[in-house]
Amino acid sequence: MNCAEFREMSEAYLNDELLVETNIQVFGHLELCEKCREDFKIRKELRYRIRKAAIASDDLAVDPAFVARLSASLREHAANRQPAWSVWFSTFRLAAATLAIMVLAAAAYLVAPQIFTGSGDLRASVIRTLTEASLMAIAQHDDCAVEKMEMWTSGSVPITPAGQALATAVLGPVSEGFDKNFRLTHAHDCAFEGRIFSHVILDRNGHTISVFIDKTQSSELNGIEPGILVSEKQQGLQVAFFAKDGKGIFVISDLPESENMSLARSLSGSLRLPARV
Amino acid sequence: MGAKSLLGKWLKLEEDPWHAFDAEATRWIPDVFRVAVWLTRDRDDAEDLVQETMIQAMRSFHRYEPGTNCRAWLIAILHNLNLKRLRKLGRVKMVDSLEDEIAETIMLEPSVPENLEDKQIIDALSELPDAFKSVVILADIEEFSYKEISQILDVPIGTVMSRLSRGRKILRQQLAQVAREYGVGGGRQLTAG
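ok -> structure tokens follow
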């Protein structure tokens, strides 16, 4: 290696970016060439001084009070899942219900195989998957619920015969087991994470109810005892889950817990899914 | 396993995404802030940008690959948000040919004054054209690799190398200028690079 070649490589050498073999060549040249050795020393020293000056500068140091405020703010955002949700809850109750159901559906199905097998670091896996599913669901929420909300409520997107059949299948047991005040808002299929979900949205006296069915046959769900109903409160919404014929079904609403549970119980007992679902 | 235990397990873990993010990301706030100050040149703007960055990072934490460089990931988000901010302000400035020419014409690298104060070094660095300054800061202060800088700034590695080299040349020239203005001496001459 000569001096010209060294100068070409000196910047990369300074940043420790050269291959081992090239490093050896550069080192060999520096041992022999006092002029380049001096040049390199100066470059290295300048780099050191820049970093030292920046790290020591009060002007570039973060205010601990700001870090504390920011940490608190982030924790609050995390507790609310997403800050935008709170706005959506007040503005788009229907959309919020849709979002919550998709989050839960996705998380359950993504996590289920690992829980059933019990393999790996389950807790870490569940946390990661739930976070991922929640965040991905927001994109789906934007696409499916928020952006199409106006079309759905205006009726500009006609319900397909399959959607109508599903809606009828849902409305029947709900009306029989509950009351006749349910009105169909929309029924459609949602593609999410490679799975297709049927999504029926109902209105009952201003309350919004989403019924969400995974169209994929899930062998994992065959292990769930028939008739088991799970109820949880999520993001201010009541969430009920049950498995039927190997499919996972979610009922999410802004109804009181007892009413949402009754609704889900009606469906779990009487729902007969159309053949195409 | 029944449905109740299936759902119960993860429904009870709803707070844990914060803990995962907190453990991995929040410790880098001082580093993110330092870069933000360089980019915005204003501490208040930097705080706003850091806050926006950390919120965005938390929302996108599923995209972060554990075991990779979280600090680089955060600063890449910071850089993107800053670009958006600058576009809104109409202050996006590309590396123009004149700046390239300036860097290319510095054939003889000036002496490096030994008695400059830290503030003078920082001021000189602040005066670098943005594209060069970003690379010098990321390489020489934040000590990111060429590859990481390439990913943060979304430019090829060759561009990182050339901007770093040119940025350092301009910086040396500016430091020499400062030394002349303030009568600081004791420098040593670098050969052409």
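The two ends of chain B are 68 Å apart (CA to CA).
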